[in-house]
Amino acid sequence: MFRAAVLSTLLALATAQYNDCPEKEGLQLYPHPTSCNEFYKCANGSLSHEVCENGLLFDGKGAVHNHCNYHWAVNCGEREADLTPLGKGICEYSFGIYSNGPCEIDYTLCVYGEPKYEPCTPGLAYDERIHGCNWPDLLEYCNPQEIVGFQCPAYVDSKDPAARFLPHPRYATSDCGRYIVCVEGNPRLVGCGDHTVFNPNTLTCEEPDLVPQCANYFKK
User: Fold this and answer.
1) Taking the model in full, what pTM does it have?
2) Do 15 and 42 meet the contact criterion of CB atoms below 8 Å apart?
3) Among 114, 125, 169, 128, residue whose Cα is nearest residue 148
4) Which whole number is the average pLDDT over 176-192?
5) Which of 35, 49, 141, 172 is the least buried, fewest Cβ under 10 Å from its Cβ?
6) Domain ranges (residues) in the chain
């Protein structure tokens, strides 16, 4: 019932320029009844008609810019979307994320049509299919050995400490905060996280105080 009342109000807003909001406190966002590029914002009872920037659309879930999301992440349903490119160069749209090549460890983030190179987390490469960084062994044109800088051994002796973690043996790197996991013969660079470091003796992530050579890793 309430949703129907809101939609009725929005239709009135769209046709009669009626300056009113269904609620008088807080922030509420409502989709435009016909356009996926537009929406209505009510801030403490104050109404504004908003238009997403080029390359963005509204679905009530976006936070890229002014409550709008990248167009490829939005389901407009029956609302129409204007996706006319207004960008230039690599920035097809004013707001977007773009690949720099078939196997690159960075990508281009466009904001107001201005490109900015963003690095992937070490060990990852940009995957255009997911609009984000991914394991290089999951990308057709990537060589994970080159990206990670490690060649997984074809055979792991049972006496090797790494054998404890078969079928995904792990190995230390020169970076105290990261280690390598071999998945089907492909190296993946993994971070310890949670303010821990990798212990090359136990091949597990532990508190820095327990790994002397990495005790000052987070004090740099």
Assistant:
1) 0.82
2) no
3) 125
4) 97
5) 141
6) 2-73, 96-146, 150-219
